[in-house]
Amino acid sequence: MSGLPVSLIQALREVVGEAGLIADVERMHSYLADWRNAYRGQAALVLRPASTEQVAAVVRLCAEAGVALVPQGGNTGLCGGSIPDDLGAQVVLSLTRLNRIREVDAANETITVEAGVILQRLQEAAAEAGRLFPLSLGAEGSCTVGGNLATNAGGTAVLRYGNMRELTLGLEVVLPDGRIWDGLRALRKDNTGYDLKQLFIGSEGTLGIITAAVLKLFPAVRSLTTAWVALPSPRAAVELIGQMRGLCGDRLTGFELMSRQSLEFVLHHVSGVSDPFADAHPWYVLIELSDTQPDAPLNDMLEQGLGEAFERGVALDAVVAASEVQVRALWALREGISEAQNHEGPSLKHDISVPISRIPDFIARTDQALQQAFPGVRIVAYGHVGDGNLHYNVSKPLGAEDAAFKAQSEAIMQVIFDVTVNFAGSISAEHGLGQAKRDAARHYKDPLELELMRSIKRAFDPAGLMNPGKLL
Ligand code: FAD
Ligand code: 2HG
Ligand code: ZN
């Protein structure tokens, strides 16, 4: 039984209908754990409203009854933000039925979409209008626009187009008391005071429920070239990205770093992939250049850049994709890391950032500190070099017990975060704090910033019913 008053359940059912209310424990199951099973909770109910008005009515009823809500999109988040606690009194509010593309304004280069639209569908709608929506990440077939906004998602094209923050012009939000804030402005300039939408972006569901957004579109890409390059070190990657940016400017749209360990996991666990080179190399980057002109001379630029890199010993080997199939094959090596690491037992995921220039020293220092304190742990380092954002992930030593490794997870995280902060970095660059890094943020973030954040939380959600226990 849900534990909620029968009259409240009845009122909620009247708002969302039979199709929008799940009370059955079996049917709730997939809403109560993340895909890795790293976070699991209980809920009184799962609600699936189908319109902004329904969301508003649900939020109002829950606010009056003092019931906490946990917003959920595609449930692909990596820090437990969309999973309720284990007391069974919270209600999961799934936004996946708010899935309409409301408007494409090609002349204004904008698209207005509801929060439950899957990212891939948004990309396709933009393409149908001859435009590009550039946010791109491994979970794009399942994650939703609402989740992308609530986590300020990053991904593999931030280098050129920015995070979700930079891609958003307007928002519609249901506030914690059930009022609807219509901030769906499609303006590139609006200097009328505080930029409220930016408060909701990256707020991980703690300030309100995002129901729709106006997002920026860009010219479609008409030329593309993709290369897989072997490197001796992370320092070579930093040199190479500087060189390629100098040569190609904004045509450099992807620059993803991977360690040999990361690639080995993918080769071992992901079917249908193969190593592009006969020899093993310590590090790799996936480089992508793109242009809005058809037949842009991207291969010439790439060849020039790589030629110079070979001469200076910055690059060791390279392969350039010769077809669409090969482009996909190279990206499969990069995008497969997350899944592959999952097959190696519990994985500790980190999404730190440091200034790009400091990436090599960060990796060297953290590798050393970890191997000294936790001999044998397998470091799976990869990420978005152009954003200074590394997934400095850790898998258990070969043969170690899962439980013994999990027991060390806090201590491992502390080593990584201590070095991160020493290098003037951030403990979360793109996944957010959720429940995984909430306590670490309390420790590492400036107390004044935390105090300001708490005041904002109190101003929007004085009763603390929006995703309690997350972020703050
Ligand atoms: P959920 O997981 O459902 O929720 C995430 C958070 O947002 C929760 O706190 C939830 O309460 C809140 N929320 C969801 N919807 C709303 C709403 N409408 N209103 C208010 N709050 C809401 N992330 C990156 O940034 N870059 C990557 O490159 C990347 N790659 C990934 C690759 C894989 C294989 C996987 C599994 C995940 C990856 N992620 C990445 C993480 C994840 O996909 C993103 O965080 C994504 O934005 C989450 O979207 P979602 O719809 O699944 O949100
Ligand atoms: C990526 O860049 C994602 O692939 C996922 O942010 C990172 O699984 C991870 O640790
Ligand atoms: Zn990432």
UniProtKB/TrEMBL annotation:
N-terminal signal peptide: none
Record-linked Gene3D superfamilies: 3.30.465.10, 3.30.70.2190, 3.30.70.2740, Uridine Diphospho-n-acetylenolpyruvylglucosamine Reductase, domain 2, Vanillyl-alcohol Oxidase, Chain A, domain 4
The keyword RNA-binding belongs to this UniProt entry's keyword annotation: no
Alphabetical list of PROSITE patterns matching this protein: FAD_PCMH
Protein's UniProt keywords contain Flavoprotein: yes
Domain spans labelled FAD-binding PCMH-type: 39-220
GO biological processes: respiratory electron transport chain
Keywords from the named record: FAD, Flavoprotein
Cofactors (names): FAD
GO MF entry, a single one: FAD binding
Similarity comment: family membership: Belongs to the FAD-binding oxidoreductase/transferase type 4 family.
Protein name, UniProt field: FAD/FMN-containing dehydrogenase
Organism this protein belongs to: Pseudomonas borbori
